[in-house]
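Example complex used in Figure S2.
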Amino acid sequence: MTVDSSPWTDRFRPRTLKEIVGNSRAIEQLRMWMRSWEKGIPKQRAAFLYGPPGVGKTSSVMALANDLGFDVLEVNASDYRTKSRLEELIGRAALQTRTITGRRRMILFDELEGVSGTEDRGGITAIVDIIKETRVPIVLVATAIGEGWEEKFGPLVDLSLLIEYRPVPFVEAVRRLREMADELRISVDDDAIEYIADRSQGDLRSMINDLEAVARGLKRVTIAEAEKLGERDRKEYTPDALMKIFSAKTLREARGVISSALIDHDTLFDWIYENIPFVLDDPRDLAEGVEALARADVHQTRGQRTQEYRLLKYMFNEMTGGVALARRESEGAGLLKLIRKRIKELGSRQADIAIAESPDGLEVKPIRHLDSDWGKANAFLRELGGRWVREKGLWSLPYFRPPQLIWRYRRTWHSRHRRSSIAERVARNCHISTKEAVADVIPLMKVIFQGNASMANEISEWLELGEKEAEWLRS
Amino acid sequence: MEGLKPQAQCIEGFVMSGGMWAEKYRPQTLDDIVNQTEIVSRLKNFVKERNLPHLLLVGPAGVGKTTSILALAQDLYGPSYRNFILELNASDERGIDVVREKVKNFARTAAISSDVPFKILIMDEADSLTSAAQHALRRTMEIYTKTCRFCLIGNYSENIIEPIQSRCSVFRFSPLSEKDAKNWIKAIAKKEKVKLIEEGLDAIYEASTGDLRKATNLLQAAAATQSGEVDDIAIYGVLGRVSPGKVREMINLGLKGEFLEAREVLRTLLIDEGLAADDIIRMIYSEVLRLSISERLKVQLADSIGEVDFRLTQGARPEIQLSALIAKLALTEEEMR
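Predicted assembly (812 residues):
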């Protein structure tokens, strides 16, 4: 084995098209479009690639550029902040079809999802202007997470050839993982391979990261090793920052965290919002604290709409001081109370568990093992961010859990995708908007699909639904 | 009710076996429409004269606005009417530029193979367009007025700019009477051999308040899950499983101070079910008015809902704002102040 210290995601990054796993249709579409530039400027001067993270969107552009002999000018999230920054960067590149060395040129706008809402409207407009004038191929890449992204990118989407990337199928992920393990000469058990592949949900980048996290330095990887991956996600610096905010006694103290925290204020906001109910366990404190967050959100919106970024300081006051000073009656025991309550609901007695405090959180120890209720309790504790510490025979729960939003969007990617394709059919056939279809009709269709197979079949046929869509309505 | 015929019998050579009943029993020609008699007779005149002005149809949901214009188109153009109309829904279109482009492509070609020299563009939910977009639309209407008639549909005429209103024949659809709405539902139940008893009918009417599409969908869902009689319990059973039922669950959790659980339900509604924030707000509002809490508290909560509603129109984040509202549900009158 050669000694190679570069991250495995780099090492296994596809250099040519042949090395890319999955999404062959999308890549073929992209290839045809790139080839069409050989015969002059095509009708659509931009291609818009979208899909979940880590499925090879950017890689396939790079590999294709390499295969077809293009020089790629790359633009990233940090460049979208202002129109002037973009113009400075692109300059006249979009008008010059060849570089100084005579190679053909193309432009890649990567990480478009980093353009956030109205704030960067200037950015979107600037890109639109560039596309309208360009004489070189422009590829836009967006990792689609979050609702409403179609709307945000509407002006770009309208000008572009839309190409959808999908999660890499499980079987292909397994095969690729096996290849990589062989190349690395590491023996990975089949069940460990499947565990890692399954965990990745079709995101090859995270899969390779996982493999590296587990396998670096090992000769053999077992399922037990792979399962340790569950622990990795939760290492964060953020808990310290949160602890400071939630325990601050003055506005100055709370606000100081904005600059000292290692994360940006948007992420910090999401962490505070996620964890506020665990800390403010008194209803009045909680109502005031969440309202402070809602006010912070309003200040941010105003700042973005007016482009007056000085307004953001009012956001910072609310999200730190507003939350900190809302705490009057709360004991900060929301997590503890929640666990007690849920364990009780699941039918276990208080005597069945022991809960102790540790520096980072709580330790929950089942006194009576193997009780059937523990299946559900375990699932619940895992959902709260808990980690099973085998040596000690207890669950370790951090006081704070990471924001669930992005995770949840990722987890429901397929489901939301299916829902919108059904909504479009319903809208067309029932003469209503997709919004109404989602709000009024689909919920009732679900009732029908779950309760009456023959009526469901008739509707499926009528709407020409695929099996996957019908299944989505049934589940 | 005489007007009620399944589509299968209406369209020659096109047999519909199933699908959503609301579509199966949608009246196909103006003759089939039994309500809105005055409007229908005026529309019939347009068919007779083979000409019509731009139209603006306003009124509550599910009383026959879209049905009327589709029926008119079918009477006017015959079975191939679909070639002569373009249906757009303002809430699904990405900006007025896209609309203009679509209209241009649609209106550019004359309506050949018909004795009617124009096509019809139907724009549903036109009242949701911004006034800037409406002004742009007005210009488009003028440019293509020779080859294309515009039929705009909306709930409120106040939200349509004056220059458009003055260029359209305005038709105001009235809400259906309880009797008409119930007759309609009963007729469909009979056709589909659903044993719908009086209590079930009342429950459907109460939940759909004269919106026939909603009522019909609700009847179908209840019939799908019920082999015997469809009564009020069957209807409430269905209602509990759809979004408003989940909104109620969320509100009840909020009232009990179970914020974490309530927030989970909110996330299900927003993310898993993909409901728009304004739809959730609408449902929360109507639920809160029905709660058995003190009247003063109701007023206070309604005020908070109004505040959230406004903030959302300003671009605030739905989950954060709705969470703030849920957290307030646990407060008493005194604490709200």
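Chain B touches chain A through 63 residues (CB under 8 Å). The radius of gyration of chain B is 23 Å.
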